[in-house]
Please model this.
Amino acid sequence: MPNNLQPAALDPVDRLILAKLDEDARIPNNALAEAVGIAPSTCHARVRALRANGVIRGFHADLDLGAIGLAVQAMISVRLHAHTRGQMDAFLAKAPLMPGVIRRLLHVRHRRLRHSRGAAQR
Model:
């Protein structure tokens, strides 16, 4: 669901639910309900409502990037010297497709720091 301009109206129980899910998105519903002090059926309905209203957009795995060979991360700010269509097309062909027009911020993952340095110079 798209991000609304108005923040969702959340009560203290909703905020507790979100805090617990932020700590552990795989927490079983009965444990979540117990942690926030509500019945499991109420908890399930609230989580469903938070998802339907776009407050909870999804559940994600927290990967150890080093364990999969991507130990070095870098944030790279990109500014093109000239704003010609050819240069934009060449840049976009090499960079991941991201929203924006002229400036880009790339979050890259590499096996070694020297690979990040090379990406920054290209």
Q: What stands out?
A: The longest helix spans residues 40-52. The chain is about 45% helix and 10% strand.
